[in-house]
Amino acid sequence: MPFAPLANDSFLRACRRQATDYTPLWLMRQAGRYLPEYQASRARAGSFMGLATSVDYATEVTLQPLERFPLDAAILFSDILTVPDAMGLGLSFAEGEGPRLAKVVRDEAAVAALAVPDMARLRYVFDAVASIRRALNGRVPLIGFSGSPWTLACYMVEGQGSDDYRLVKGLMYSRPDLMHRILAINADTVAAYLNAQIDAGAQAVMVFDSWGGVLADGAFQAFSLAYTARVLAQLQRTGVDGSDVPRIVFTKGGAPWLQDMQSLDCQVLGLDWTANLASARALVGGAVGGPGKALQGNIDPHVLLAPPARIVQQVQQVLDSFGPPHTDRSTTGPTHIFNLGHGISQFTPPAHVAALVEAVHSYSRAQRQG
Amino acid sequence: MPFAPLANDSFLRACRRQATDYTPLWLMRQAGRYLPEYQASRARAGSFMGLATSVDYATEVTLQPLERFPLDAAILFSDILTVPDAMGLGLSFAEGEGPRLAKVVRDEAAVAALAVPDMARLRYVFDAVASIRRALNGRVPLIGFSGSPWTLACYMVEGQGSDDYRLVKGLMYSRPDLMHRILAINADTVAAYLNAQIDAGAQAVMVFDSWGGVLADGAFQAFSLAYTARVLAQLQRTGVDGSDVPRIVFTKGGAPWLQDMQSLDCQVLGLDWTANLASARALVGGAVGGPGKALQGNIDPHVLLAPPARIVQQVQQVLDSFGPPHTDRSTTGPTHIFNLGHGISQFTPPAHVAALVEAVHSYSRAQRQG
Lengths: 370, 370
Known about the structure:
With 370 residues, chain A is of the alpha/beta class.
């Protein structure tokens, strides 16, 4: 069944470094706990995984932020830990706590037992992608995603979130051979997972290297970047409707390594709030007519806790920091996709999000009119 | 009473960008829980603050790592929260948890009540400095320290450690005027605190901007860096024995802002493990004969969890990354003080620290012999 044609292609155009009438935006974790309607859906579903594993709930919550705000992209509602779960590590979410894996991968035997899982175990994700794409009906494009090989490995070794990554780093420094084996399996799994999302209808894909920034210089390149590159090399270039599928890589804390990330075979680099957009544009954004990466980010999500007038100021600072938008429709050039530097906080008032979205659209239109 | 002359000045020479026979090293939190003798002292003292507020205990534990390892500097045993405690915010350490402040600073009234505290309330710290300096008897120099104005503000607003700094960032974005007021008071307090440590015998001082790295680009410069600069501007240049007192600034997560930190009026910049030492040297290390900053850091403390043979490899990588040492004793040049990129983990086997110290000294001597 063919999908509806796209009414708002500003996000995909910006991914391709094509000029747009305004700076498109979406928000990491835009379908989330800050929305009362999300809380209501989650209460009905009984749990986070109840939402994520149900095609209908995943579709419902993915679309919720789009009903409130004129965002320029939707992102699949899911969790990066669906992958270790499919590997048989047993994912659970205890109320009021973060996710937890029942089994951990810390020794030779556990690593030997790892394999790329049958993608059929993740069918609920691909069904959700197809359902969301149909429900979007061409309104905005749908982004699929996965955790990066390194970020998945952090959870697989630690078993849960960590504040020091002691166990995964201990394994990495003590037994780099085992860590490379885990990462190779993760990379091939992530590639298969994203390809299946593309087959199901995803129009762009994003790799979340949420914990790449905890690595030391040198270790980042060897244990995170190299395996993100291994994922990208295996990704299908074309989606179900024959369009190209832009690839986005986001490393939280990755600002020191922007130059290293330039070599990644992706169209877009996501930036957290520590990055300076002007420097990033100069470093990797490319010239008009030349190659380069589109940039995505990077306002501090906690700006959204301030009153709307201050949010507007901060939005303008971020847009000004990126600098004059590329406006020549006859060629490619440096582009910016507005986003947060990390996921939205559950304590964000939805009215503040409305102020941010309106400020991004109106100020970026005004920038283009000079 | 004059202090004994210094037997090992390699650390101070490297701070001044003078050539040394080997790369000097010390370790952040070198007097800490990974040492059984520290655990024993703490058990006798009854608590962390029991150690920190007792001149005898603070002296005892400061010297413990020097008895085991040929480190090139000692650092005052204390905690950055002594300052908010002296401001009347009420510090406590619950067993098995981090530090906590009884009062928090989150509104106009609490900010209005803040003032630079009488340094007499911190007399136990200055007495400890003098006692440690005497006990060192010229063996190695003694480093005094303080948290940065921003890092202290994080604790003063949050009341404890945080994983998202939501409250302090919320205040900063909503009421920048209040945050600037807190930071100005903190800066003047930190300057008075460090000057009193210098008067008591500290031979170098270090500002720990442990939480500067959580700030967004722009906010870092306005809310952290500017107030570290305000501290540095007020510091005495000369110690009790007439020597210059090098100033070290360490921002955890500060790698994206190294160029901004170049303008700080300090001799040494501390780097965490995300920084590339070769790039940092090129950016701020300066040329032989020209101005520049000495660099301190930056091995990942979790390297110390690996077997000694791997620790040696990683030490060599860090030393090689800094590159050829400056050896011309007739002039200044780029220098490196080896350290961890953050505090040592309590799970570190002391024998692994011995391997690291030996590797730094022997490999860096060999580097100098070409």
